[in-house]
C-alpha cells in the first residue's frame, strides 16, 4: 500500500517519523546496554534484533513512498526535513545503511532547494510550497534500489477459537434473523473471551430485530 499512498496527511507523516525516532532511541539504548553487560547477559542479541526489524520496516515503508509517490506526499518530505538529525546515528548500521542513505538523499536534495530560496523564518506553507516546486524536478533514479515489500501473515494455531465465535457474533449483531439468547452458546464463548457483554446486550436494541 505504501507505493500507492497519495496526499499523506501531515499528522500521519509526523507520526511515522516519531515512530521511527522512538524505536531508534530504544534500539540505541539497548545496544549500549548490551555492549556494557558482557558479564551479566541480561539482554540477548534477539532483543535488539526485534528493534532492528521494526526500524527496517518503517524505513522500507518510507523508502517505498519516496520511490513511488514522492511528488504526491510532500508532507512526508517536510516531516523528514524537520527531523533530519535522527537518521545520523544509524547511518553506518550494516542492515539499515542503504535505506538510511536513500532517506538522507531526499533530505539533502530538498534542504538545498529550501536553503536556496533564502527566506528568513519561512512559514510551514512557504516551505511546503518550495518542496512542491522542487519535487517537480525530482527523479526517483537518485535513490538506490529497494526490494519489493513482502510481509508474511502467521496464523495462531488455535485462532479458530476466537474467530468462529467472533464471526457468529457479527452475524447475530448485523443479521435480520431472531436468535434465542439461551440457545446461542457460541455467543457466550465470545462474551467470555472478549468481555463483550456490552456489545451483546446492545444487540437487543439493534435495528431490524424481529
Task: Give me the secondary-structure topology.
Elements: H1 10-35, H2 45-69, H3 74-82, H4 97-116, H5 124-135, H6 160-174, H7 185-194, H8 197-202
Helix pairs in contact: 1-2, 1-3, 2-4, 3-5, 6-7
Please tell me about this protein's structure:
By secondary structure, the chain is mainly alpha-helical. It has helices at residues 10-35, 45-69, 74-82, 97-116, 124-135, 160-174, 185-194, 197-202. It has eight helices and no strands. The two termini are 42 Å apart.
Which terms would index this structure?
extended, single chain, 210 residues
Helix proportion range: 55-70%
Order of helices and strands: HHHHHHHH
Parts with pLDDT < 50 across at least 5 consecutive residues: 196-210
Rg, Å, rounded: 25 Å
Q: What is the first-to-last residue Cα distance? A: 42 Å
Structural class: mainly alpha
What multimeric state do the chains show?
single chain
Structural shape: extended
Share of residues in strands = under 5%
For the report, how would you describe the main beta sheet? none
Number of strands: 0
The average pLDDT score comes to 82
Put simply, the count of helices is 8
Task: Produce a short descriptive summary.
The chain is mainly α and 210 residues long.
Amino acid at each position: 500500500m505504501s507505493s500507492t499512498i497519495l496526499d499523506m496527511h501531515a499528522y500521519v507523516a509526523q507520526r511515522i517519523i516519531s515512530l521511527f525516532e522512538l524505536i531508534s532511541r530504544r534500539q540505541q539504548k539497548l545496544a549500549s546496554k548490551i555492549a556494557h553487560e558482557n558479564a551479566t547477559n541480561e539482554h540477548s542479541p534477539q532483543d535488539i534484533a526485534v528493534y532492528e526489524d521494526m526500524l527496517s520496516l518503517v524505513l522500507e515503508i518510507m523508502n517505498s513512498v519516496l520511490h513511488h509517490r514522492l511528488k504526491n506526499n510532500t508532507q512526508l518530505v517536510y516531516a523528514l526535513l524537520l527531523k533530519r538529525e535522527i537518521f545520523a546515528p544509524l547511518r553506518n548500521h550494516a542492515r539499515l545503511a542503504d535505506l538510511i542513505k536513500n532517506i538522507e538523499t531526499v533530505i539533502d536534495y530538498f534542504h538545498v532547494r529550501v536553503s536556496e530560496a533564502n527566506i528568513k523564518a519561512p512559514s510551514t506553507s512557504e516551505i511546503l510550497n518550495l518542496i512542491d516546486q522542487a519535487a517537480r524536478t525530482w527523479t526517483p533514479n537518485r535513490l538506490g534500489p529497494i526490494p519489493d515489500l513482502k510481509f508474511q501473515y502467521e496464523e495462531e494455531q488455535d485462532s479458530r477459537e476466537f474467530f468462529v465465535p467472533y464471526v457468529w457474533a457479527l452475524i447475530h449483531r448485523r443479521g435480520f434473523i431472531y436468535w434465542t439468547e439461551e440457545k446461542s452458546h457460541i455467543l457466550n464463548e465470545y462474551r467470555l473471551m472478549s468481555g463483550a457483554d456490552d456489545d451483546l446486550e446492545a444487540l437487543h436494541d439493534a435495528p431490524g430485530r424481529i
